[in-house]
């Protein structure tokens, strides 16, 4: 298939009334999905299955992301919140089950094995990060790196299949785009004190802040006014904009080195929203 229509196909699994009425879902992994589809279509051996592989992988990712939204505590008394939590668990399980069903129907047993191994690796990485977070041993740099690895892992499972055509281009491009995606999301998190805990800014201040500031961050209910003061003091938004600008320039240079003009054009088109956002950075930085 030449036309990318994965989100439309996925709607038959995601747009159930029960889910839409009683809970919310994470964003569809649009950027990574489009990247995978573009690379698969450029491989003559894999292109006939590009739509199937991309759909299955995106549904697994959506299932994992949905489970990540489930609150840690099961002691929810309010009926609406409890139902939302239960539906997130069920929806995540359902999306993951669709991956098995789609690939098994197509006789793609080897691909089921590849993605299943990738799911195990995602969970291993998450547990390592969770342990470091609980011990407050995570640096801001490590937070970005680990988040990129977790978000990339399912899609990286295709690296072996693409090596004969793209060599090491697929893992490099995937990780680079995913890093842009992560920094992009962190910029918006930095604009809200309510979403600050566990963000890049949180780990940066925990790493570089004073003893009193670190103590303030470790409180169960951090004072949002003080959080905003810390965000401003440490120029969190400004640093993130600079990181995005630097990485976008590196990504653009890497893409231009690819052999396929068609793929280069498609990759720039896929990353256009982030690239367009990065272009506006100088104006934003002046306002910070």
Automatic annotation (TrEMBL):
It comes from Paenibacillus aestuarii. It comes from the Bacteria. SUPFAM superfamilies: Terpenoid synthases. Pfam families: HEPPP_synt_1. InterPro entries: HEPPP_synth_su1, Isoprenoid_synthase_dom_sf. This is Heptaprenyl diphosphate synthase component 1.
